[in-house]
Amino acid sequence: MDKDTGIEQLTSHWSNGLHIFLQLKYCSFINDECLKAVFMSNMNFFKRYNNLRGMTGTIGDKEERELLTLEYDVDCFELPRFKKYRFKYEKMKEIVCSSEREWYEKLIEDVNEKMELKTNKMNNNNKEEINNNKIQLEERYKMLKLKIEKTTTQLNDEFQKKSSIDKRMKTFKEMKNTLLNRKIQNQEDYDDNDDYSHQNEICEININQVKNEFDDINETIIDLEESLNLYKIQESDLIKNIQNYELLLNTENSVDQRRAVLIICENIVKLEKISLQVRKEFQHKGNKIYTYDRAYRKFEKSQLNCGDIIIATNIAGRGTDLDIDKFLERNGGLHVILTYTPNNLRVEKQAFGRTARAGKRGTGIYIVYDERKSNNCIPNLTIDYLSDVRNENEKERVNQIVTKSFHKIKIEDELFGKFDVFKNELNKIIERKYLNLKENELKENYFELQIKSLQNKWAFWLNNMEEKLE
């Protein structure tokens, strides 16, 4: 378990016998020592393809893109958004705190601001926006109703065709049975006559033809039924959304006007501390508070509502789609508080990308604690300064990958290629030399075990060369 994020690392093992030692200590199943013997790096795997195409939500900064271009000879470009990006970063409120106490106070203060029950009415711009959205959904609903009617008609026509085919099939089968009964009853008359064979062949041809038509009709019916079910699901969603917009326009004063807040923490320890402070402040106020600290736990809510507070490690920033209802969208959407500066721009974008999705509104802010500000090492510490340092460190990390890691990976791939050729040659020699030996002259699987022993020696040698390769 990654102690920072709560992600289960099921395929990871401690090296140099530590993993096996712990398994012995806790009387659990013992795995073999993990050594690289047969492997292929991700880099070499992708390079085996003649054409590479990929898509990602967060490709990173300039350095990461240049790295991909350098190694894989690919270009990077940004695909334009289908809908307007409506995220707003609250630059004026960002802060680097000098103590944990100040940090908790600022976090609570920001959440409190988003949870205030406001009584002001919607302005004309908001009303116009909601009404325009409602009109667009109503137009989509009309078009969808036409699709449903057309598909239903097509489906009924196909069922009629199927019924007609059923009758034809029944007729041909009855003809075949009649021929068979006549042959049984008049065996002598049919012995030297080709009439039965000819008529039976015609029946078989007709039956097979009808079967093919029947299969085609069934495929068409299945496709139409799937389309109709999809249209009806879409219809149900559209009706619900139109009703929500009508409710927003007609009951503007009685609607809950709170926001929902997502607080993203650096690790589980900090999550538990922040969660304690947040629950102390908001539990009794009727807010629903959720923690998301283990990747294997399914997130409890499919849709966020007004007043919800989620406290999570950065696993909430990795592809988790936090849907919001129409009332929350009207109030400004989900507000994201990032409580630490991530190691790179890509993770930052993932975190703030939990809000303002698919053209919806949303806000975000940095509220971080850095002890260097408290002991006067850097008294005027700012988010911009932390971001600049982070970006420089990321550049250095990418440079290390290019100058060291890639070279190491390439050498390992080359060494494995040579060992693989040697092993295959050795197998051929063994087959030629000992092909004529009687089975009882050698123990079962003798050569197979010898090759595995050789492979183990190679793996241990490669493990011992680790430092030199680095």
From TrEMBL:
<keyword id="KW-0813">Transport</keyword>
<dbReference type="GO" id="GO:0005524">
    <property type="term" value="F:ATP binding"/>
</dbReference>
<feature type="domain" description="Helicase C-terminal">
    <location>
        <begin position="216"/>
        <end position="410"/>
    </location>
</feature>
<dbReference type="GO" id="GO:0006886">
    <property type="term" value="P:intracellular protein transport"/>
</dbReference>
<feature type="domain" description="SecA family profile">
    <location>
        <begin position="1"/>
        <end position="399"/>
    </location>
</feature>
<feature type="coiled-coil region">
    <location>
        <begin position="108"/>
        <end position="154"/>
    </location>
</feature>
<dbReference type="InterPro" id="IPR000185">
    <property type="entry name" value="SecA"/>
</dbReference>
<dbReference type="InterPro" id="IPR001650">
    <property type="entry name" value="Helicase_C-like"/>
</dbReference>
<keyword id="KW-0653">Protein transport</keyword>
<keyword id="KW-0175">Coiled coil</keyword>
<keyword id="KW-0963">Cytoplasm</keyword>
<feature type="coiled-coil region">
    <location>
        <begin position="193"/>
        <end position="227"/>
    </location>
</feature>
<keyword id="KW-0811">Translocation</keyword>
<dbReference type="InterPro" id="IPR027417">
    <property type="entry name" value="P-loop_NTPase"/>
</dbReference>
<dbReference type="GO" id="GO:0006605">
    <property type="term" value="P:protein targeting"/>
</dbReference>
<protein>
    <recommendedName>
        <fullName>Helicase C-terminal domain-containing protein</fullName>
    </recommendedName>
</protein>
<dbReference type="Pfam" id="PF00271">
    <property type="entry name" value="Helicase_C"/>
</dbReference>
<dbReference type="InterPro" id="IPR014018">
    <property type="entry name" value="SecA_motor_DEAD"/>
</dbReference>
